[in-house]
Amino acid sequence: MQVPTIMDVDVRGKRVLVRADLNVPMEGKRVTDATRITRFAAGMKPLLARGARLVILTHFGRPQPNVMDPVFSVDKLRPALAEALGCPVKFSDTCSTQAAVILSEGLQDGEVLLCENLRYNPGETQNDPAFAAALSKLGDLYVNDAFSCAHRAHASTEGLAHHLPAYAGPLLIEEINALGSALEAPERPAVAIVGGAKVSSKIAVLKNLVGKLDHVIIGGGMANTFLFADGAPMGKSLHEAGEVETVRDIQRLAKTAGCVIHLPQDVVAAYDFAPKARHEITAADHCPSDAMILDAGPKALADFQTVLAGCNTILWNGPLGAFEVQPFDQSTKLLAQTAADLTRQGLAVSVAGGGDTVAALNAAGVADDFTYVSSAGGAFLEWLEGKTLPGIAALQAAAKAA
Between 199 and 102, where is the model more confident? Predict the structure, then answer.
């Protein structure tokens, strides 16, 4: 996917209007996980060093439109942002008025201005052309560096690209390249691990993946639905009895494409959904009537590890079991460690994404060992579905029009 990058542009003396995703978790005024801020800042430092005048747009939480609730003010992000950038950060308590424009025009080379929460204005989520036009007055160049928001056609992610010379930021480019290497042009054999609760939430993902990759490992509640479609009793297990035909469609697509679907041959069945609940390992088609499947079993894990060992590309979205509750985190944790080991040895490229996936990899202590871990949620899923993301499409259209 070809998109113009800001790293190829002379930015000295230019107001570079950047859409970031600094929607980070906080307790009071303290950022509890600054990962998004530090990753964003790492890409911006070279631009500042080259004389860019940085104007930052972001959202934070879900404020009620037109209500300036201080709980959602992005001003509280300034200390963490300034620390990550290594320079002071000025603040505008608006993002679309003449006062904000005046502050942006007063910036010197290498200086930074953070503008107030985009979502205070209903024009942001409505992709209002007038709001996008107002935002465009803050900069000379527009940069989208928020892949995690690129699936939304908002004023700051789609509309702005029609008003200014538009470019992808370094973080966005990094994400596109990583996901492209795992899905669009993977080194084969390639495998996807797809977990989570419901097949119905990932129908498009599964249909796209089985048509592009060599293997798909299915875990979590999704695996239960596949097992149920093959006649396995579910007991009290989470599954979707109404999605049997969907499973059949996915299986037919996989067979036509030559993709092998892997399901657990044994499972961990528990009699309660609670930490250290009474449980047993049973064949996947022998779940007791008063138990629920909460994880893949040791034989399944061994099978999945063998599949990973034979692949050069590993794509991961979703846990294999109820990883938040011990001991039902074992298959996810141990398979994650296998993927990490293969990556460290240079035997595989590993790309993972999705909120639960990132949490599971962090819990396993291996997130830093993967080739790339995406912080995006919805955008990552839509990419896996094969969709064109509006924010990226806007950059491509701007490049063609230039």
Answer: 102
Task: Give residue 1's pLDDT.
Answer: 56
pLDDT classification of 180: cutoffs 50, 70, 90? confident
Task: Report how far residue 96's alpha carbon sits from residue 152's, in angstroms, rounded to the nearest whole number.
Answer: 20
pTM of the shown model = 0.90
- Least Cα distance to 231 among 267, 271, 268, 284 occurs for 284
**Active-site residue, from 45, 198, 236, 387:** 198
| Options 14, 15, 19, 36, the catalytic residue | 36
Residues 55, 56, 60, CA angle at the centre, nearest 5°? 155
Report how far Cα 351 is from the mean position of its chain's Cα atoms: 11
Domains of the chain: residue spans and CATH: 6-168+389-401 (3.40.50.1260), 176-370 (3.40.50.1260)
DSSP conformation class of 389: P
By the 8 A CB rule, do 18 and 145 touch? yes
DSSP 21-77: -----EETTEES--HHHHHHHHHHHHHHHTT-EEEEE---S-PPTT---GGG-GGGG
pLDDT value at 367 more than 60:
yes
Taken in order 170, 174, 175, 176, the sign of the CA dihedral is: positive
355 catalytic? Reply is: yes
Q: Which of 180, 211, 377, 378 is catalytic?
A: 378
Active site residue 62: no
Is 198 among the catalytic positions? yes
Let me know if 90 is a catalytic residue.
no
8 A C-beta contact, residue 370 and residue 341: no
| C-beta separation of 190 from 182 below 8 A | yes
